[in-house]
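Re: that chain you flagged

S.,

Sorry for the slow reply, it's been a week of failed gels. I finally had a moment to sit down with the sequence you sent. For the record, here it is as I used it:
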Amino acid sequence: MQDFTEGKISKQILMFSLPMLIGNVFQQLYSLVDAMVVGNFVSGDALAAVGVSMSILMFVISALIGLTSGSAVLISQFFGAKQFERLKRTVSVSIIFLTGLAVVVPIISIAAAPALLRLLKAGDEIFDDAVVYMRLLMGGMIFPVFYNMYTAYLRALGNSRTPLYFLIFSTILNTGLDVLFVAVFDMGVKGAAIATILSQMAAALLCVLYVYRKVPVLQVRKLQYDKGLLKAIIKYGAPAAFQQSIVSIANMTITRLINSFGPIAMAGITAATRIDQLAIMPVGNLAMALSTFVGQNMGAGLEERAKKGFRTTLLFMLVISVFMSALMMAFSRGLISLFLNSGDASTPEILQIGGSYLSIMVIFYFLFAFLFSFNGFFRGAGDAVIAMVFPIISLGVRALAAHALVNFAGMGPEALAWSIPMGWGLSSLGSWVYYKKRLWAGKVAAKAEAADLVVS
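Prediction finished late last night. Pasting the structure tokens below so you have them in one place:
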């Protein structure tokens, strides 16, 4: 545990965000490696198939993982109150609830895979590969759910390093298996999917074994159901799940629009998106660190220190965003080429579309920094609803703008890139007004409410 109510602000925020950044980088490497190996050793069409499948997969997995935050809130509070029996009961209810969802939801999704991919306008060239990739990963959905579930339990007790070690191991395993199955055994997208499932299974198994050998307080010998705790888990987890679902739905509408331009556009933008996710990750992690910093200081009544932390973090974010913009502008096409096979006839066009998309969007990374600095502050100040609202507005504006630019302005795939800063800019402006008017003030969770939760 770390006390942010005293000490040097800049050092605290940077040091706290670093382990999260490392963990998220390795988390992103799962889909990044799949895309790179498939693009290099199979084809551009196969890369497009992975891209369109992932938009649906992320909708399902992000909603399920969002629900783990509800159990994490309760576990951390019961742990602090030394109510270990209630803590174990919460773990038990969480296991029952999330395991049930992780079995039922994938079964439905596997059956609906062809219809969902047609809804997203997946072309005939990529359709069969997309169905195979999606169905395989849906079939192994229980493994990432269990990994993230037990990771949430451990982090609720203040242990963030152990899950990171398991994630690093499974990412390295995924890379090796990807190369083996796709490049050596020539298994195509099926090999990439199987590699991901096996590595996720390894991470989940390591987490469960670690808990049952090293963390007695989380060990459940007999599953118990508690209706009241289930309601509490849903209450605290539903907002995160809802936000993730809305984000995924917006992304799926954009994926559908991309597919209307054909598999070459899908392949180019898939590669560009993977690079973009890594580029903006430092800013996103600083926002998460800021939330914790602001939460502790607002809880301690140190509003001015919380606001100073916000200004310091915003400065860090702006410096990083400008640096990443310059880096991406200089090397965008070279980075895109890492995902492509030079012998593929479609490679030059994929490279042109992906490079153009990335070179337009990266100019506006500073707007992303503004939006997520405010988001981190609002979340830490206890205004969880508005912290959810502005990112949703950003994605909504992006989706509407992209469709308008394509259907009314006659733009091509570059419309997808121009629509992103429109969403960032409008939401940043709204966030600034909300911050200046102090509409977030007075929303720190009351101690009485926390106490009521613990003893209820």
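What I noticed first: The CA atoms of residues 1 and 417 lie 40 Å apart.

Talk soon,
D.
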